[in-house]
Amino acid sequence: MSCQLADKNIISRHDILAGVKRIVIKIGSRLLASVENGLNLELMQALIADIAKIRSQGKEVILVSSGAVLAGRTKLGLKKFGLSISLKQAAAAVGQSRLMHAYEKLFNAHDICSAQVLLTRDDLTCHRRYLNARHTIFTLLDYKVIPIINENDTVVVEEIKVGDNDNLSALVSNLAEADLLIILTDVDGLCSADPCKDKNARLIKTVKHINNDIHKLAGKERAFGTGGMISKLQAACSVTCFGIPAIIANGHRPGIISRIINADEVGTLFLAQKKQIPSRKHWIAHVLKVKGMIILDEGAKLALCKKGRSLLPSGILAVRGRFGVGDMVSCVDIDKKEIARGLTNYSSHEIDKIKGCNSSEIEMILHYKPDDEIIHRNNLVLV
Ligand code: GLU
Asked: How many Å apart are CA 182 and CA 22, to the nearest integer?
C-alpha cells in the first residue's frame, strides 16, 4: 500500500499538538444518538467535562454539533429515515432549542458560557456575512464563550446548504483560523480496511497526504449520520490543504479530547500540508458549491493536469447541469473522475453550443466572445 499511509509519524504528534490553541471539535448525530432514541445526555456530559478540562489548560474551543434533527424527530415521534425536507426542517426547529438547552445546562455545570451560532453556506460564500460570522466567533472567544455551531437547517434549501456538519466544521476551522480540527465519530478513525468485514483491519494513525488510496479506504457511505467517512475525509482534505491538521477519533472513548491534546496515539491524524493553496483557490475548491459538471477529453485532462493550462472549449466533450457565468463547476474525465474545479466564464447553455470547437470559432457561434478560456487557469484548482 502507498507510502502515503504513513504509520510512522514523520513529525511527532507531540510537536504538532504542542502549539495548538484554538480547536474546532465536531460532534456528529451518530455520536449523540442514544440507544433509546433522542440525545445521549450521558455521553454529552462526558464530552463536555473533557472540553472543560482542555479549556482549563488554556485551549479555546469551538463546537460544531449536529443533533437538531435527531432531538426534534424524537420529540415529534417521527420515523428515523425517509423524512421529507419540510419534516426535517420542522424537526430541526424543534430540536435545535432542545440541543442547545442540553448543552447550556451541561456547560453551566462547569461555569462555562455557551452560545448558539447557526450558519448556511451562503453565510460563508458572501464576503460580508463571512466577516460578520468571523467577528462574532472571535468576540465570543474573547469573552471565553464556547460557540456551538450548526447548520441553520430550517432555512436552507439545497442551493445554500453545506449539507453535512463534517464539511461545516472544515469551513468553520478556516473561518476561525483554528489550529486543529477534531472530528468525533463512533469509530476509532480511518482503518486500512472495513473493520466490520476484515479482522486484519488496522487503524491508520497518521496520514501524510490524502491521495486516491486514502479516498478508497473511505469506501461507500454507510447508512448512518449524514456524512460517513467520505465527508470526514473531505473535511480533513479541506483543512489540511489550508495548513490545519485534523484528527478523526472515537467520541465514545473516555477522555478522548484530552488524550488527543496530550498527543496520545489515538484516532487518525491528518498532517497539515506544507504547500498550502492560496486562500482564493481554497475558497473556489472548498467553500463554493458545485453547480454543474464539464466532461473533458484526454487532451484537456493532460493540458490541465500536466501543462498548467486553462480549459478551452476544444477539450470539452459534454456539459451536465445548468449553471451561469461565474459559477463553480467540476471538471471530470470520461470516467467521471473529478480532475479540477473552477469558475466558469460561460454558462452551461453556451458551453453546450461551443464544446469541441476552437476558441477562434466562439464568436461565430455565439455572436460574442467574452473570453478564449472556459475556465482561466487563475480560477482553476486541480483536485
Ligand atoms: N444539522 C443537522 C442536525 O443538526 C446535522 C447535519 C449532520 O449531521 O451532518 O441534525
From this structure: 11
Secondary structure percentages of the chain, helix, strand, coil, to 5:
40, 20, 40
72 pocket-lining for ligand 1 (C-beta < 6 Å): no
**Cα–Cα distance measured from residue 282 to residue 146, given in angstroms and rounded to the nearest whole number:** 26
Contact 152, 119 (CB under 8 A): yes
226 lines ligand 1 (CB under 6 A): yes
143: helix, strand or coil: coil
Q: Is 225 in the pocket of ligand 1 (CB under 6 A)?
A: yes
pLDDT of residue 10: 58
* CATH superfamily assigned to domain 13-281: Acetylglutamate kinase-like (3.40.1160.10)
- Cα-based distances in Å from 190 to 71, 229, 230, 363: 28, 8, 10, 51
- Residue with C-alpha cell 434549501? 157
Q: How far is the CA of 165 from the centre of ligand 1 (A)?
A: 6
Domain 289-382 belongs in CATH node 3.30.1370.10: no
Count the alpha carbons within 13 Å of 186 in the hemisphere toward its beta carbon.
Answer: 14
Task: Kindly give the distance from the C-alpha atom of residue 146 to the centroid of ligand 1, in angstroms, as a whole number.
Answer: 19
Q: Which residues of the chain are modeled with pLDDT < 70? A: 1-10, 158-160, 220-227
Model pLDDT, residue 159? 63
Nearest atom within ligand 1 for CA of residue 153: 1
Q: Is the distance from the beta carbon of residue 185 to the nearest atom of ligand 1 less than 6 Å?
A: no
CA distance 128 to 256: 36
Q: Whose CA is closest to 33, among 88, 95, 90?
A: 95
Domain ranges of the chain: 13-281, 289-382
Q: Is the CB of 250 under 6 A from ligand 1?
A: no
Count, residues in the chain: 383
